[in-house]
Design a protein that fits this description.
The chain is an alpha/beta fold. It contains twelve helices and twelve strands. It has helices at 10-13, 19-25, 29-48, 70-81, 100-109, 122-125, 134-147, 165-170, 223-228, 241-248, 260-263, 292-299; strands spanning 58-64, 87-93, 113-117, 152-155, 161-162, 176-178, 181-182, 189-195, 198-203, 219-222, 257-258, 268-269. The strands form three sheets. Strands 3-2-1-4-10-6-11 form a seven-stranded mixed beta sheet, sandwiched between helices. Strands 7-8-9 form a three-stranded antiparallel beta sheet, with no helix packed on it. It has a two-stranded antiparallel sheet with strand order 5-12. α4 (70-81) packs parallel to α5 (100-109). The radius of gyration is 22 Å and the shape is globular. The protein binds uridine-5'-diphosphate-glucuronic acid (UGA) and manganese (II) ion. Residues 157, 159, 272 line the site of manganese (II) ion. Uridine-5'-diphosphate-glucuronic acid binds at residues 63-65, 94, 130, 132-133, 136, 157-159, 215-216, 238-239, 241, 270, 272.
Length: 305
């Protein structure tokens, strides 16, 4: 956790910290982040005045895990969600214990959220193709079943790109809604196929014997319907997470609500992010003691996970 409170040699710090910052430094990091969150919340409330509070809530379940890109990815997604009224963000971390960097970042966003710890069961960790984000999404659904009474559930991975229009497309979902997702496999696209508004089949670069060959970002489920299907959950089978979950919802293709102008618009992309090399260890050189680099170091996750 970055913070001035970790530093004892006040006089060497003084040249980098203004009197205002020194005062702030007396306040604990988390409290400062919460103040930032409060400020962001006030700003957003101003913007929400035009939106009726009767809108269905969108419960966004985001699996995440510790890596160099984690905070940058969550930042991009959070700043997308800041533009969406009536959302509740369930950030489900593939981690045994809370990650302070994530805890502090979430507090700073001012979003309505819960942070869940949902580690992948140990037995799957050794598999060559791991069921990524499955424990996380099931934990998010458990939370929704316990706490939500209305609204819609959407699985939003932390590394996709979302046009905020997708959230309005899904908001009034009755049971299950679907739409195209861009940049999926070599096909470049995963989408239901429609003709004159009627369901004809699926387009996806990898069918793999799936009944529902769709991407995780391509559908939403209403809270009410999810609660009517208490047995619905995501299986720990890599590649078959969406298919297994949609089958467990017992939804028929003809019951699905097709959105995004009859599936003619792409509002979400499976962008993926380049894996960055670990940061240079030269920052650890003692010549940087008592400099701002010591503060930055902590936020860069130089320490192995
Ligand atoms: C693709 C799909 O978009 C995912 O929805 C699907 O879960 C995944 O394949 C799969 O079938 O395993 P992909 O881009 O290959 O996703 O995977 P990631 O983006 O690396 O992971 C999916 C989500 O799980 C992300 O939100 C990521 O933060 C999270 N994750 C990944 C974990 O929680 N733990 C991990 O070890 C890896
Ligand atoms: Mn991904």
């Amino acid at each position: 956790m970055a913070g001035y409170t970790h530093h004892s040699s006040q006089h060497t710090q003084a040249q980098y910290i203004s009197p205002r910052d020194t005062l702030r430094g007396l306040v604990k990091e988390t409290v400062r982040e919460e103040i930032r969150g409060w400020e962001a919340r006030v700003r957003r409330r101003e913007g929400e005045k035009e939106h009726p509070s009767t809108l269905p809530t969108i419960y966004i379940i985001t699996p995440t895990y510790r890596r160099l890109e984690q905070i940058p990815e969550l930042t991009r997604l959070a700043q997308t969600l800041m533009n969406v009224p009536r959302i509740h963000w369930l950030v489900a971390d593939d981690a045994e214990v809370p990650n302070p960097a994530v805890v502090d970042y979430l507090a700073s966003t001012g979003l309505s959220y819960n942070y869940l710890n949902s580690p992948m069961p140990k037995k799957f960790e050794k598999q060559p193709t791991k069921p990524k984000g499955v424990a996380n999404r099931n934990a998010g659904m458990d939370w929704v079943r316990q706490h939500a009474t209305e609204g819609v559930v959407y699985f939003a991975d932390d590394d996709n790109t979302y046009d905020i229009r997708i959230f309005e497309e899904m908001r009034h979902t009755q049971r299950v809604s679907m739409w195209p997702v861009g940049l999926v496999t070599e096909a470049g696209l995963s989408t239901p196929v429609l003709s004159e508004g009627h369901f004809k089949g699926w387009y996806d670069g990898w069918i793999g014997g799936r009944k529902f060959p769709v991407d995780m970002a391509g559908f939403a489920v209403s809270v009410q319907y999810l609660k009517q299907m208490p047995g619905a959950k995501m299986p720990f089978v890599a590649g078959y997470e969406e298919d297994g979950f949609l089958k467990s919802l017992k939804i028929k293709p003809e019951e699905i609500e097709f959105k995004a102008d009859g599936c003619t618009k792409v509002y979400v992309w499976h962008t993926q992010t380049k894996k960055n090399k670990p940061s240079k260890r030269t920052l650890l050189d003692t010549k940087y003691d008592a400099t701002n680099l010591r503060v930055l170091q902590e936020s860069m996750m130089l320490a192995p996970a």
